[in-house]
């Protein structure tokens, strides 16, 4: 089997998995909706009438609540997957994850501060929804600012030094986490519950509006990253080698950071911190596809979407009507698989 | 004619049933707040409640009603799966995004503001009653509360009471100003020993000794999590206070003490008796 065939096969399998995940997630939930009803409701949206009986309320729940949630899971999962792949390429290290450059820590800090200090701000207290959107915007800005600081620290003569960036990331993470801890400490019980739920991630509260808000931030990197995948392959040989082969290394680094930050920050802003997807997904994909970023990046997007969609389905059905934070589920599903991979790798090393 | 007279009672009964049905409008109510649940039950809507949150612990019949998750992380679908025609809650309990989802699906959603005072309780009762078109019932319930309140014996002297919220010895918080507990302690005629700050603050040994409460007040579940009074006395600083020396630790049910619902007078009576006792 040649390389092209194998790649097409992998992509086909992943697309199949994603379709299956979306279909199941759309069909299963607290509100019982039969598969036929799901099809009928969705067709009715496109104007095709099918003779299947369903209630108005059922249609509304499926269309306004469940479907946006599934779509949001797909988008954010894909974003986390590619961001992980991009950063692992940038750091030339399979253990890099989006948290490394301060995205999650910066976002968490601003979100938690907003939750705790909300009672002190009164100028928008009359509009809870405004508060909610403000939270998304502020969180996004927090994530971007944290990354900017890390990036600025690592610059030397306009060149980002990777080892410095890693250290700067650790420093900013530590600082943000310390202040987040302080905020947690002074928070009231109610606030603490919001904070904990937020720090573990949730796709609840998704609407078409949140989907549209996140979409461009994930779609742009999805389109752009595969186009710089070849340069990233060359970059894997080392910075100097890449420069000699004509890759504009400095620009490449900036592009990677911008893409990864966009995708992760948008996700964190609407769904809280969902760990593990960005670290594990590219790693798992690499085992199957090999290290070529041209295939690794699209496949990471697909698998990220699958993992998050399935995790969200589990988190809202296992303990229904209560919900488990989705970040916990992604870790529980991902970890065994991850460990199995490590063990497999170890065997191949021992030979 | 005979046939008609025989059928008349049945017809009347059918008419009566119809009237009752339209009056109740076939309500399927979901309440996402323990106090609102209590008020609904006091107003006679116990049978119409199809779902409640976990803070709805009273009346006992609520244990049989479907639970829709904890009030802080309630999501829309489990609530809507119960096909309610009314969702009722207070503003500090459900995330704005979820409220928005209820509205987008077209389910009538009533969000009320709860204020921790006797007037606040009455306002809340009246608002719930208004939402369900039983304003007269609400007014009657308020009047009853006012009357009952006159019967509470005042404290012989204003003791200093400190409320400690505990979930095991690791998490211990003290209720300061502007908390529901501060308001209850004040209403009972006692003094909140922790009056130097707002909201809940972590308990420190020195602050505890400095506050030196005569009585320590806790939720029954909270004291249990500490391993009873002896467990509490092991906490640094507790034994050095007047309350610790005299082992004056009183407990109450959390929803009763902080609900500020129809049982507020009952809660006050119990609290004053326990502080006095």
UniProtKB/TrEMBL annotation, chain A:
Keyword tags: Cell membrane, Membrane, Transmembrane, Transmembrane helix, Transport
Membrane topology (UniProt): Multi-pass membrane protein
Record localization: Cell membrane
CDD domains in the record: TM_ABC_iron-siderophores_like
InterPro entries (alphabetical): ABC_BtuC-like, ABC_transptr_permease_BtuC
Coiled coil: none
Pfam family, one: FecCD
Principal location class: membrane
Transmembrane segments: 68-87, 99-121, 133-153, 165-186, 206-235, 256-283, 295-315, 322-343
Protein family (similarity comment): Belongs to the binding-protein-dependent transport system permease family. FecCD subfamily.
Record's protein name: Iron ABC transporter permease
Species: Chitinophaga horti
Upper taxonomic lineage: Bacteria, Pseudomonadati, Bacteroidota, Chitinophagia, Chitinophagales
UniProtKB/TrEMBL annotation, chain B:
Signal peptide positions (record): 1-25
Record carries keyword Methyltransferase: no
Keywords recorded for this protein, A-Z: Receptor, Signal
Superkingdom of the organism of origin: Bacteria
Keyword hit for Signal: yes
Every Fe/B12 periplasmic-binding domain range: 28-277
Protein name: Helical backbone metal receptor
Source organism (scientific name): Chitinophaga horti
């Amino acid at each position: 089997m040649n390389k092209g065939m194998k790649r097409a096969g992998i992509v086909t399998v992943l697309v199949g998995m994603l379709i299956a995940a979306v279909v199941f997630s759309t069909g299963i939930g607290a509100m019982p909706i039969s598969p036929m009803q799901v099809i009928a409701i969705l067709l009715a949206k496109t104007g095709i009438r099918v003779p299947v009986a369903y209630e108005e309320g059922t249609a509304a729940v499926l269309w306004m609540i469940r479907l946006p949630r599934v779509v949001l899971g797909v988008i954010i999962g894909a974003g986390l997957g590619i961001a992980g792949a991009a950063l692992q390429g940038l750091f030339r290290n399979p253990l890099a994850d989006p948290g490394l450059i301060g995205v999650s820590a910066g976002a968490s800090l601003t979100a938690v501060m907003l939750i705790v200090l909300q009672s002190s701000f009164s100028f928008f207290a009359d509009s809870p929804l405004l508060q909610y959107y403000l939270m998304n915007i502020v969180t996004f800005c927090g994530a971007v600012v944290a990354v900017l600081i890390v990036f600025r620290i690592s610059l030397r003569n306009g060149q980002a030094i990777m080892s410095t960036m890693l250290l700067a990331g650790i420093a900013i993470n530590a600082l943000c986490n310390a202040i987040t801890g302080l905020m947690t400490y002074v928070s009231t019980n109610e606030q603490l519950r919001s904070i904990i739920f937020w720090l573990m991630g949730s796709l609840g509260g998704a609407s078409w509006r949140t989907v549209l808000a996140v979409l461009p931030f994930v779609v742009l990197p999805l389109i752009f990253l595969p186009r710089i995948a070849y340069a990233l392959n060359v970059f894997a040989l080392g910075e100097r080698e890449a420069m000699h082969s004509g890759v504009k290394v400095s620009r490449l680094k900036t592009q990677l950071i911008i893409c990864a930050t966009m995708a992760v920050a948008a996700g964190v802003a609407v769904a809280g911190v969902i760990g593990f997807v960005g670290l594990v997904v590219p790693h798992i994909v690499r085992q199957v596809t090999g290290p070529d970023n041209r295939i690794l990046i699209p496949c990471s997007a697909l698998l990220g979407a699958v993992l998050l969609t399935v995790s969200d389905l589990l988190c809202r059905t296992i303990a229904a009507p209560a919900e488990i934070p989705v970040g916990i589920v992604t870790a529980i599903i991902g970890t065994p698989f991850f460990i199995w991979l490590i063990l497999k790798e170890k065997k191949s090393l021992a030979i | 004619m005979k046939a008609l007279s025989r059928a008349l009672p049945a017809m009347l009964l059918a008419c009566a049933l119809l009237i009752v049905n339209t009056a109740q409008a076939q309500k399927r109510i979901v309440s996402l707040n323990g106090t609102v649940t209590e008020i609904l039950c006091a107003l006679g809507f116990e049978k119409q409640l199809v779902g409640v949150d976990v803070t709805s612990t009273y009346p006992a019949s609520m244990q049989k009603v479907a639970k829709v998750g904890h009030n802080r992380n309630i999501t829309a679908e489990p609530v809507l799966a119960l096909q309610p025609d009314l969702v009722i809650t207070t503003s500090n309990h459900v995330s704005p995004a979820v409220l928005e989802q209820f509205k987008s699906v077209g389910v009538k959603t009533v969000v009320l503001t709860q204020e921790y005072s006797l007037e606040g309780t009455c306002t809340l009762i009246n608002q719930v009653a208004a939402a369900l078109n039983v304003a007269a019932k609400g007014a009657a319930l308020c009047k009853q509360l006012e009357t009952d309140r006159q019967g509470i014996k005042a404290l012989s002297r204003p003791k200093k009471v400190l409320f400690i919220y505990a979930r095991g010895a690791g998490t211990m918080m003290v209720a300061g100003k502007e908390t529901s507990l501060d308001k209850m302690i004040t209403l009972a005629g006692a003094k909140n020993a922790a009056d130097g700050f707002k909201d809940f603050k972590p308990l420190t040994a020195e602050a505890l000794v400095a506050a030196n409460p005569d009585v320590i007040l806790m939720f029954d579940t909270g004291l249990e999590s500490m391993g009873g009074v002896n467990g509490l006395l092991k906490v640094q600083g507790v034994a050095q206070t007047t309350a610790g020396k005299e082992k004056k630790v009183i407990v109450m049910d959390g929803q009763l003490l902080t609900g500020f619902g129809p049982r507020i007078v009952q809660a006050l009576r119990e609290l004053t008796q326990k502080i006095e006792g």
